[in-house]
Amino acid sequence: MIALILIVALYIFRGAGRWLNREDPLSHADVIFVLGGGMPQRAVEAAKVFAQGYASEVWCSRPDSPADDLARLGIHYVG
Questions:
Q1: How many CB atoms lie within 10 A of CB 66?
Q2: What b/e string do you get for 39-52 counting C-beta neighbours within 10 Å, with b at 16 or more?
Q3: Cross-strand partners of 59
Q4: pTM higher than 0.70, yes or no?
Q5: Which end of the chain, N or C, is less surrounded by CB atoms within 10 Å?
Q6: What is the pLDDT along the chain (79 residues), one digit of tens a residue?
């Protein structure tokens, strides 16, 4: 019985992120701020949102070293 409870608790704990995830519709903002993790995918998505006119500026935090990842995409990165 205890093993069953532990298995169910583990299943619920591992799936909690999917249940708590909620996407809000985009709205106009002053700035799009891109966190450094997940570069360059986050920067590419921010550029798409910027191109749609949702913000007038895009700011990027300092990642460890996105230069190599961005260079593979043909993007010149000035650190």
A1: 19
A2: bbebbeebeeebee
A3: 33
A4: no
A5: N
A6: 899 999 988 888 887 777 777 788 999 999 999 987 776 888 899 999 999 999 999 998 875 777 788 888 888 877 6
Cα–Cα nearest to 70, from 41, 47, 46: 41
- Contact between residue 58 and residue 32 where contact means Cβ atoms under 8 Å apart: yes
Q: With left for phi above 0 and alpha for psi between -120 and 50, is residue 21 left, alpha or beta?
A: beta
Instruction: Scan for tokens 């998505």, then name that residue.
Output: 45
Sign of the dihedral defined by the CA atoms of residues 27, 31, 36, 38, in that order:
positive
